[in-house]
Write a structure and sequence with these properties.
Elements: H1 2-16, E1 20-33, E2 52-62, E3 68-77, E4 81-87, H2 89-96, E5 103-123, E6 132-153, E7 156-180, E8 183-194, E9 197-201, E10 204-208, E11 212-223
Antiparallel strand pairs: 1-2, 1-11, 2-3, 3-5, 4-5, 5-6, 6-7, 7-8, 8-11, 9-10
InterPro entries: OMP/PagP_B-barrel (IPR011250)
Protein name: Porin family protein
Length: 224
Amino acid sequence: MKKSVLLPLLLATGSTAFGQIYFGAGVGYFFPESDSSITSIISGGESNPEDGIGAIANIGYKVPTNGWHFEFEFQYFEPDSSVTSQATGAQSAAATGSNLGTGTYYTKNNAENYTYALNVYYDVLDSLETNWGLYAGGGIGATNLHQKVKISGPGGTVSDSNDKWLFTYQFLAGISYEPIEHLRFDFAYRYTLPENSNFTLFNQNVPVDSYDYQSLELSASYMF
């Protein structure tokens, strides 16, 4: 009997006196932008990365005496882009090392964005008797951006890939709601900025400048 009472008591004490650990997951809609793109390899054709849906996950800790939260977050989405342009065989040979003929070229950039960040944010409603939260904060981390490029011309197709780790920082804000004990839903906005970088594709340096993205995210968390 004593053991059955002791375990819930320890869990309750850990949740109140030592804060709350939580795990969360959800989906986001991402709006990437860039001043330059991988699709400029052939004939200078530029294309902005496409908007799309991605996944998010986090593990965090809530300080029991105030509204501060500390969390580790993961984001994944694919900011793809494509462009159609006109080029000569000499241009394709200079850009890729292969003469694919003169005519219409289709360049497809399939990018994979993996972001890992340590975030800190403050809930201004934490001290009130409410199930709602309103918070803002920021974080720093790293983004692994994996660029995969396929170029198709009149005479064939070539492809190449390269990835880089990029220092990243972000700003965030959101609202939360706890319908029942231990369960929380969040609707959040994030603005994420990886650093500029050069990617080695087809034996040449291809810059990606001012790459950043905004996201709207919906997630659920379980709090211990």
